[in-house]
Design goal:
Layout lengths: L2 H20 L15 H13 L10 H18 L24 H14 L14 H13 L10 H16 L5
Helix pairs in contact: 1-3, 4-6
Length: 174
Amino acid sequence: MNLRNEQLAIIEIQQNLLELFEAGYDLPYVIPDGIYGSVTRKAVSEFQRTNKIPSTGIVDFETWTLLTNAALAAATDRRDASGIFPFSISLSSGKIKKGEKFDLIAIVRIMLGKLSGFDYEDTAISGIFDDDLEKRIIDFQRLNLIEPTGEINKETWNKLAAAYNNSIAGSPDK
């Protein structure tokens, strides 16, 4: 291994150790500088001890594999949960209207329920766009100065999403 590749490998080890440190592991703080000094060796040794493998301070294949997997898991755990993108669904008409069936309709019902203070825990949430939902969409559209079609088009969805996100952001039980 040439010097440049060795430095890159050391930096990767140090970045993994830093990720674990930031995730709360009891390891020394390591700066990814490409130098395998006493702090990096101590952090590796502590990681090995914690994982019940020989605590040599040297990164062998077993240590590399455990360290890489642990850092990846820690980074994944620290990320926010993934959002959903319901309007990535291709709608041939560009809108959802009465009589249609989608999982998204159940989400719209929950969003409208949150905005109106409606207790949806006692109500079955369905994915069917029925008369009741059409009425609630019309009411929402009127309140938001949108043409009251009773259909969920892009403008209605964007206003609904913004109102819902604002209600969640201001909610103490968010």
